[in-house]
Automatic annotation (TrEMBL):
<dbReference type="GO" id="GO:0003723">
    <property type="term" value="F:RNA binding"/>
</dbReference>
<dbReference type="GO" id="GO:0009982">
    <property type="term" value="F:pseudouridine synthase activity"/>
</dbReference>
<dbReference type="InterPro" id="IPR050188">
    <property type="entry name" value="RluA_PseudoU_synthase"/>
</dbReference>
<feature type="domain" description="Pseudouridine synthase RsuA/RluA-like">
    <location>
        <begin position="11"/>
        <end position="167"/>
    </location>
</feature>
<dbReference type="InterPro" id="IPR020103">
    <property type="entry name" value="PsdUridine_synth_cat_dom_sf"/>
</dbReference>
<dbReference type="InterPro" id="IPR006145">
    <property type="entry name" value="PsdUridine_synth_RsuA/RluA"/>
</dbReference>
<dbReference type="GO" id="GO:0006396">
    <property type="term" value="P:RNA processing"/>
</dbReference>
<dbReference type="GO" id="GO:0001522">
    <property type="term" value="P:pseudouridine synthesis"/>
</dbReference>
<protein>
    <recommendedName>
        <fullName>RNA pseudouridylate synthase</fullName>
    </recommendedName>
</protein>
<dbReference type="Pfam" id="PF00849">
    <property type="entry name" value="PseudoU_synth_2"/>
</dbReference>
<dbReference type="GO" id="GO:0140098">
    <property type="term" value="F:catalytic activity, acting on RNA"/>
</dbReference>
Length: 226
């Protein structure tokens, strides 16, 4: 597993997650990112015994881009708290079908996950198990029936971006789960974790990393997808 390292020190490991690889072990038994990174560190640094690597957030299996892992339990605890307080800024790019009426907007929905089906739905705010989900989007460009969106999360719900954009009427290109009416089997979902901005949990220094979106269709409709 070749994983680009975007930043690393004794406390943190920030990487570019490859697409179509699970973040942690799932029922497929395919090699997952967490296991692969531990193996990489163990071999590279000639570490005896088990390697500690804390998972503090996730990306859906088909989605690629920036992720942060903790290399110490102290960093893991502080990063988890930062995630809970929503002080880690996560920015995404998405190619959606159509052109949203509002070029810039905040979406507020309530989501409920069916764990058996691994599927999330928008529900009423009165739903007993509904969880509030907030994201902000901005249309960067529109062309050939698609729009390129910059998306910033304020909450971190499962499948949040995919569900909320689909519910808005603009499903993400290639989304097999929430865009079945517009996506074709075999298409790669056009959702990418562009960047992470955070204060180092130990050193308190600002960290910013980004990963360039894939240079393939539909991303290459636009010459620049930074």
């Amino acid at each position: 597993m070749k994983v680009p390292i975007l930043y690393e020190d004794n406390h943190l490991l920030l990487v570019e997650k490859p697409r179509n690889i699970p973040v942690q072990e799932d029922s497929s038994r395919d090699l997952d990112l967490l296991t692969g990174l531990k193996q990489m560190i163990k071999i590279r640094d000639e570490k005896p015994g088990n390697v500690y690597l804390g998972l503090v957030h996730r990306l859906d299996r088909p989605v690629g881009g920036t992720m942060v892992f903790a290399k110490t339990s102290k960093a893991a605890s502080r990063l988890s708290d930062m995630m809970r307080r929503h002080v880690i800024e996560r920015q995404y790019l998405a190619v959606v079908h159509g052109v949203p009426k509002q070029k810039k907007n905040q979406l507020v929905d309530y989501l409920h996950k069916n764990s058996q089906k691994n599927q999330v739905a928008v529900v009423s705010s009165q739903h007993p198990k509904g969880k509030k989900a907030i994201l902000n989007y901005q249309v960067l460009a529109s062309r050939e029936g698609f729009s390129l969106l910059a998306v910033q999360l304020e909450t971190g719900r499962p499948h949040q971006i995919r569900v909320q954009l689909s519910a808005m009427g603009h499903a993400i290109y290639g989304d097999q789960k929430y865009g079945q009416k517009t996506s074709k089997v075999g298409q790669q979902i056009a959702l990418w974790a562009k960047s992470l901005t955070l204060d180092h949990p130990i050193k308190k220094e600002p960290i910013y990393v980004q990963a360039k979106a894939p240079a393939e269709y539909p991303w290459n409709i636009w010459k620049q997808t930074k």
